[in-house]
Amino acid sequence: MRKKKQNPDRCDENCMGCRNRFNCKKRVLLGYERLAFGSTADAFRLLMCNGFDDVNVDEMNLFNVAEIKKPKDGAMEIKFFDRIKALEHLGDIPEPEEKAAAFYDVLSDCAKGLREDKNEF
Questions:
Q1: pTM of the complete model
Q2: Is 43 exposed, middle or buried (0-12, 13-18, 19+ CB in 10 A)?
Q3: Per-residue pLDDT for 82 more than 90?
Q4: Cα separation, 82 vs 84, whole angstroms
């Protein structure tokens, strides 16, 4: 069996830094990035094909697809996830520097409080 090449930008099932792969912030961030910036070319190819025999769906990137409907009239309807909402969620995720600064501010406030308490005795 061939071993997958590790990609540092991808958080997969074997992520050692995560206790639970379903609760991994890096996975969430990468998922939103894929929704916001991912290609829809494969979905378009699927829409334009004559039948499912013409394409190999297993090899297509349909991550951005929220829903596929094929009514009785033979047409196909593809709905995509909302890119704007994905971008909004990406904007809500704080940068690592912001987290560090906020943590430093809390520590600094605690230290000041300890100094003030010490001076009262």
A1: 0.56
A2: buried
A3: yes
A4: 6
